[in-house]
Design goal:
Blueprint (H helix, E strand, L loop, with lengths): L6 E9 L4 H19 L4 E5 L5 E7 L2 H9 L6 H10 E10 L10
Antiparallel strand pairs: 1-3, 1-4, 2-3
């Protein structure tokens, strides 16, 4: 039996060349702020060979994620600005409901 708890969201970004460090700094700061202020459970950020940055964030539930999105104020406006200034393109988030989780937790 696998654990199926939680809710995930997939994000995709195209970053302006030369702005990768600012983007990563903003992503880390925003993730920490969301964890501390809104109940998010963290995220992983990946770089894809096709030039896109791909991230997924874990939430306790879809309801928690949606409640956070409805809040008007950013949990870290400076981090949001760092990210925004670093982006060429941002695709809409993709909500993911886990069905099977076989990732090794060691």
């Amino acid at each position: 039996m696998t654990e199926q708890a939680g809710f995930y969201v997939l994000y995709r970004f195209k970053v302006v060349p030369g702005k990768e460090e600012a983007f990563k700094d903003g992503w880390c700061r925003m993730t920490e702020a969301i964890r501390e202020q809104r109940g998010g459970l963290g995220s992983r950020l990946h770089y894809s060979e096709d030039g896109w940055w791909v991230a997924y964030a874990k939430w306790p539930s879809r309801q928690a994620w949606e409640a956070s999105r409805r809040l008007a104020e950013s949990p870290d406006s400076e981090a949001a600005a760092l990210m925004a200034q670093s982006l060429q393109e941002r695709l809409p988030p993709i909500p993911l409901a886990p069905e099977i989780d076989l990732i090794d937790r060691r």
